[in-house]
Design a protein that fits this description.
Chain lengths: ~140, ~160, ~90
């Protein structure tokens, strides 16, 4: 029983370590940013998830204490990984002007990043009085 | 009516209580009481900042959806790990795929985008200005149309049952 | 056996951190560097958790939780900065 428990935790640790390394290797190997985004978002997140689950099992089995912190960290990482990836993808498209190469969405719409920001029209008149104030001073 | 103003988001209250108990790392009555206090106060004070609560049609389907996504996350990692390790750079075929959406509620589109990012070789990059289609990047997709059909079949159909 | 597995996993994550550092120094653009930093944060969380198992203490979990939250917020702030050139408008 003890043996099976150790084998289980060790397997999770080895899988987690290997996935983390593969994710970071993908960051080096893959050719451009959009493909590079795939490796850390998926592989590294599951690698950390496996390590955290292993740690939870280890503390429950060996020290007899159940920790929920690992569970919270894994849930948090799984919820935030897609958001981070989406933000970086948007920033990449914005900076490289990659929108021209994208397939159009259809229905005469454009991608959200191609639109001018909504508050820009609101901002512009607000600047004018400030300049007036500056002149008066 | 009075109760619904006092407890505007019952699920959020429960969630906050559980998260507080997990953070405290104890299942004692004290942690539960303070968690419940936070769960009541935080939604009440932030009430005016919350958008409308999403209407959920069949709550039990959520469990099925989460299981499907979890299974796909594991297979996704095997697929991506294999692509990273064994497909040479020159043979890699990345592709942009446009997925027209039947889903209309913003919460459902967010959930769909998140699950697409976590599952095999695909990553959500953009949403169209009218929110009727999303842009997905595929790591290695010799047949982009198959990817689109699979996403619509596997995730969007299930989400349509949950969010009407 | 658990010691060997721990040793293996820790060397994997150590090597992963070195690879991330390489990507930060030799990147094609700013988003690339932010991505490498974000991966680095996740790898640091894993390394800290492994250290916690090795030492048999749960003190590190609070630290890794804080790193997870601060890492996410900082990545979002970087992305906002890249998109708008400003963080708080």
């Amino acid at each position: 029983m003890e043996m099976a428990f150790e084998i289980g935790v060790s397997t999770l640790l080895v899988i987690g370590g290997a996935l983390g390394l593969i994710g970071s290797y993908g960051l080096i190997k893959l050719p451009d940013l959009m493909t590079r985004l795939h490796a850390p978002t998926k592989t590294t997140t599951l690698g950390v998830g496996a390590v955290l689950i292993a740690s939870m099992l280890w503390f429950a089995g060996r020290h007899g204490q159940i920790n929920f912190h690992e569970l919270l960290i894994s849930i948090f990482l799984f919820l935030t990984a897609p958001l981070t990836a989406n933000f970086i993808a948007k920033a990449h498209l914005h900076r490289t002007g990659g929108y021209a190469d994208l397939p159009p969405p259809g229905d005469g719409a454009v991608w959200a990043g191609q639109q001018p920001p909504e508050d820009e029209q609101v901002d512009e008149p607000a600047i004018l009085p400030e300049e007036g104030v500056g002149d008066a001073l | 009516m009075f109760l619904s103003r006092l407890v505007p988001h019952p699920f959020l209250t429960l969630l906050l209580t559980f998260v507080w108990m997990m953070l405290m790392n104890s299942v004692s009555a004290g942690a539960a009481a303070f968690g419940l206090f936070l769960g009541l106060v935080v939604p009440f004070l932030t009430q005016s900042y919350w958008p409308d609560r999403p209407r959920i049609h069949r709550p039990l389907k959520i469990v099925e959806y989460i299981l499907v996504v979890l299974y796909d996350i594991v297979t996704a990692n095997i697929t991506v790990a294999r692509i990273v390790l064994f497909v040479p750079r020159a043979r890699l075929q990345p592709a942009w795929v446009v997925i027209p959406l039947e889903l209309r509620s913003p919460e459902a589109i967010t959930v769909l985008a998140g699950s697409i990012t976590l599952t095999p070789g695909t990553l959500t990059a953009e949403v169209s200005s009218d929110a009727h289609s999303i842009l997905v990047h595929c790591l290695h997709a010799p047949e982009p149309d198959a990817v689109r059909d699979e996403i619509k079949q596997r995730y969007e159909r299930r989400l349509l049952e949950i969010f009407p | 056996m658990i010691d060997h597995a721990l040793q293996f996993a820790m060397s994997c994550y150590g090597l992963a951190l070195v690879l991330n550092l390489y990507r930060i120094f030799r990147a094609a653009g700013v988003p690339d560097r932010v991505l490498a930093l974000d991966t680095m944060v996740i790898n640091a969380i894993a390394l800290l958790t492994l250290l916690g198992i090795k030492e048999g203490t749960t003190v590190y979990f609070e630290a890794s939780m804080l790193i997870a939250m601060v890492g996410f917020v900082s990545t979002v702030a970087y992305a906002k900065f890249m998109l708008r050139g400003d963080i708080i408008e």
